[in-house]
Amino acid sequence: MGDGREQPRNGPDERWTSSQRRDVIRERLLGAGSIRIEDLAGEFGVTVMTVHRDLNVLESEGWLRKVRGGAVLDPAAGIDTSVRHRLTQMSEAKEQIARCALRHVDDADAVMIDDSTTALALCRLLPGRGPMTVITNFLVAINTVADAPDLDLIALGGSYDSRYAAFHGLQVRDHIARLRADVLFMSTTAVLDGFLYHKSQETILIRHALMKSSGRRILMVDHTKFRRRAVHQLAALADFDVVIVDAGIPDDDLSAMEALGVNVEVAEPSAAGEVTGA
């Protein structure tokens, strides 16, 4: 029996990951409508500043609005959208991949970020690592870096597609064609037989433009994307300089990529919770 409040999934001596904390905060907000920072800090065994950082991330994703001493559910958060769903999927693997991808970001780079939540995980790590320029059509990524003093933001505007929280269309594609980035970080819906697939033709047009306008191309995909199905072919794995996957990748999928000559890096969590590329 209980009071309707979700019980902690970790014991008091176990360390919570940021993904686990944010999952619990989302569930609490959807159930109760509000949370208190001091309560969360005590439950998770972390500092108040750590909870503030978690809330900042969730606020940038549109889940909540911070108020004095806590946060309240954003009215729009109750709407089930494909973007919000993607933000909650494989979040820990995405963070691992992002930390591995961070090694490919050099100071003063012009960095392109697509409208995937996998590349968004990298985008969250960029503030404080500038100076650099971030180029993206993804509204969540735009909001994530907009106030970072060491980052120059080029927001690619056009026709807004709420299904992807991104700007699409000819205006975006033409804008990209006039730019040149040092590196592109992107993901996709599915990987099968050495090719990338996506369900959205509009998204494919933009990602083709991003690929043409970048010097290096880094693909970030968690292991669940392999052998999925999607209708439209986007590119070949061999079109990328590096493909970064998480440690859950099956051996046969890893071997198949290596047989194609793909440069693969596996994001491996270390004992300290940091991630290195294997």
TrEMBL record:
<feature type="domain" description="HTH deoR-type">
    <location>
        <begin position="18"/>
        <end position="73"/>
    </location>
</feature>
<protein>
    <submittedName>
        <fullName>Glycerol-3-phosphate regulon repressor, DeoR family</fullName>
    </submittedName>
</protein>
<dbReference type="GO" id="GO:0003700">
    <property type="term" value="F:DNA-binding transcription factor activity"/>
</dbReference>
<dbReference type="InterPro" id="IPR018356">
    <property type="entry name" value="Tscrpt_reg_HTH_DeoR_CS"/>
</dbReference>
<dbReference type="Pfam" id="PF00455">
    <property type="entry name" value="DeoRC"/>
</dbReference>
<dbReference type="InterPro" id="IPR037171">
    <property type="entry name" value="NagB/RpiA_transferase-like"/>
</dbReference>
<keyword id="KW-0238">DNA-binding</keyword>
<dbReference type="InterPro" id="IPR050313">
    <property type="entry name" value="Carb_Metab_HTH_regulators"/>
</dbReference>
<dbReference type="Pfam" id="PF08220">
    <property type="entry name" value="HTH_DeoR"/>
</dbReference>
<dbReference type="InterPro" id="IPR001034">
    <property type="entry name" value="DeoR_HTH"/>
</dbReference>
<dbReference type="InterPro" id="IPR036388">
    <property type="entry name" value="WH-like_DNA-bd_sf"/>
</dbReference>
<keyword id="KW-0804">Transcription</keyword>
<dbReference type="InterPro" id="IPR036390">
    <property type="entry name" value="WH_DNA-bd_sf"/>
</dbReference>
<dbReference type="GO" id="GO:0003677">
    <property type="term" value="F:DNA binding"/>
</dbReference>
<keyword id="KW-0805">Transcription regulation</keyword>
<dbReference type="InterPro" id="IPR014036">
    <property type="entry name" value="DeoR-like_C"/>
</dbReference>
